[in-house]
Amino acid sequence: ELSVEIKTEKTFKEKVADLYETFSLNNATMPNLPVFEKAMNGYSKLDEAGKVSNPLLTIVDFDLSSKKKRMWILNMDTQQVIFNTFVAHGKNTGVEFAKNFSNTVNSHQSSLGFYVTGETYYGKNGLSLFIDGMEKGFNSNARKRYVVIHGADYAEPEFINRVGRLGRSYGCPAVPNKIAKNLINTIKGKSVVYIHKNNKNYQSKSEYLNS
After folding, report:
1. CB within 8 A of 152, min separation 6: which ones?
2. pLDDT-based confidence at 148, cuts 50/70/90?
């Protein structure tokens, strides 16, 4: 009698849930699962398109207060969280919470969506990292707006203790000065950055979230 081998292919969602569990066992802190799922949607699409050479996924959760460590950098090969830190939003995006987003030059607002990291340069904020927005209408002007990752004193936890919230940028996801150099050198060269917010307009229109 023939035994029929039934192969059950796991769905993408199941695979992502498994991966999340592995990350959660390995690490003290992770973004929320729904945010991780969205990030994985875009990461896998960018990876399939050959746009990723550095297998890191940076997730920024702008649903969270700026007083929280709302940036995670995940190594997709080792399932390790290599950074969990503070990150600033643009001054016209909100005070403690990020609310308003823009892709427009001089808006001083943050931009949502998926980016691929580029090369570094030295600017007025020291070592800085270009990030290229992959989403027309949401973040595609990042490079010409000089929306870059850089270090800032106003992104240090001491600033929160003094002011009651993190300081704000002109739209850049600025990180604490003390770790900026190390963080930038880790994620430069075509890794993925996903800036998340439960924003109806973005969530319904992003090609990376909706296949």
Report:
1. 88, 125, 167, 169, 174, 175, 176, 177, 180
2. very high
